[in-house]
């Protein structure tokens, strides 16, 4: 079955677990949206840090211009990291993955250490970092990755959020789920059955439901605790096979890398048989 929907919103997250950026258009690479999770903060053992343990990372606001990164946060001066900035090559850990990255200089390390109030470093992806999405779900598509948890793109649905919000004491915004693409015009939870989303020349294959961690339980602007939406999701969105609650679908780029996505575009939706 093939239907249509509309791509209403686009987000990318230059620094893993920092504030997201909404955009009207975004180039697509094989590893996801351009500039998405190209930088990451690691601890003194070079292991990734996120809002799961450091929720106030939500207060770190990134901006990317010409490949250069600017970071702002309360009570800190702006940090400017040049597009050409590079330091030592190091090995970093994301979950069970180890991959290559490059440091971004002592000034950047000092800034993120002050922001997190503990020793930390800012690192950036490398072209040969050697990380791909799980072949268990991506199958024959050897989808390259930067620093997302496990897949290049996260797709969410406006109607699924609307249905969820009817079950909550107060409506929550889609930003709390940190999507890349937001679709409108689908039945609630239809994304569970979608196989492909085609937007112009770009085709995404939806490969795995997104199991949710604690991040949606924090305010996406302040990092302060908010309503624990996971308790509600567990009542009707618990996936026994994945041992967690799900919202949204992880996707890989099947074809069309090098083209761009634009908010307002018509999408062609094909479902699994």
Q: In summary, what is this structure?
A:
The chain has helices spanning 106-116, 135-138, 158-165, 229-236; strands spanning 2-12, 21-23, 25-29, 32-33, 39-42, 61-65, 68-72, 79-81, 89-94, 97-103, 121-124, 153-157, 181-184, 194-199, 202-211, 238-239, 244-255, 260-262, 266-271.
What does this structure look like?
The mean pLDDT is 96. 41% of the residues are buried. β3 (25-29) and β4 form a beta hairpin. This protein has a single domain, classed as PK beta-barrel domain-like (M1 Pyruvate Kinase, Domain 3, Beta Barrel). 11% of the residues lie in helices and 38% in strands. With 273 residues, the chain is mainly β. It is built from four helices and 19 strands.
List keywords for this structure.
273 residues; 7-stranded mixed beta barrel; M1 Pyruvate Kinase, Domain 3; 11% helix; mainly beta
Which structural class is indicated by helix and strand composition?
mainly beta
Beta-sheet strand percentage? 35-45%
- Assembly of the depicted chains: single chain
Low-pLDDT segments? none
Give me the number of helical elements: 4
The CATH homologous superfamily corresponds to PK beta-barrel domain-like
Q: What CATH architecture label applies?
A: Beta Barrel
Number of strands: 19
- Terminal CA distance reads 8 Å
Strand and helix order: EEEEEEEEEEHEHEHEEEHEEEE
Instruction: Quickly name the level 1 CATH class.
Output: Mainly Beta
CATH-derived topology: M1 Pyruvate Kinase, Domain 3
Main sheet overview = 7 strands, mixed, barrel
- The shape is globular
The helical percent reads 10-25%
What is the alpha-carbon Rg in Å? 18 Å
The average pLDDT score comes to 96
What strand order characterises the main sheet?
1-13-12-17-15-14-19
Total tally of structural domains: 1
């Amino acid at each position: 079955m093939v239907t249509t929907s509309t791509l209403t919103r686009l987000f990318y997250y230059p620094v893993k677990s920092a504030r997201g950026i909404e955009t009207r258009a975004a180039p697509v690479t094989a590893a996801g949206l351009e500039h998405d999770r190209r930088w990451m903060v690691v601890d003194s053992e070079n292991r990734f840090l996120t809002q799961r343990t450091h929720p106030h990372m939500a207060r770190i606001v990134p901006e990317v211009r010409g490949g250069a990164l600017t970071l702002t946060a309360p009570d800190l001066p702006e940090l400017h990291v040049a597009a050409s900035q590079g330091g030592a090559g190091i090995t970093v850990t994301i979950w069970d993955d180890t991959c290559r990255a490059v440091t971004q200089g002592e000034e950047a390390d000092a800034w993120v250490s002050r922001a997190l109030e503990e020793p930390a470093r800012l690192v950036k992806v490398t072209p040969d970092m050697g990380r791909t999405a799980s072949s268990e779900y991506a199958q024959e598509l050897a989808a390259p990755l930067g620093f997302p948890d496990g897949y290049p793109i996260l797709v969410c649905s406006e109607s699924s959020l609307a249905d969820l919000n009817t079950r909550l004491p107060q409506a929550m915004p889609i930003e709390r789920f940190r999507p890349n693409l937001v679709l409108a015009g689908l039945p609630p939870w239809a994304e569970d059955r979608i196989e492909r989303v085609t937007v112009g020349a770009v085709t995404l294959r939806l490969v795995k439901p997104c199991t949710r961690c604690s991040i949606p339980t924090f305010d996406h602007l302040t990092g302060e605790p908010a309503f624990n939406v996971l308790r509600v999701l567990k009542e009707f969105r618990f996936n026994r096979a994945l041992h967690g609650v799900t919202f949204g679908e992880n996707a890989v780029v099947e074809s069309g890398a090098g083209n761009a996505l634009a908010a307002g575009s018509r999408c062609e939706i094909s479902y699994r048989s």
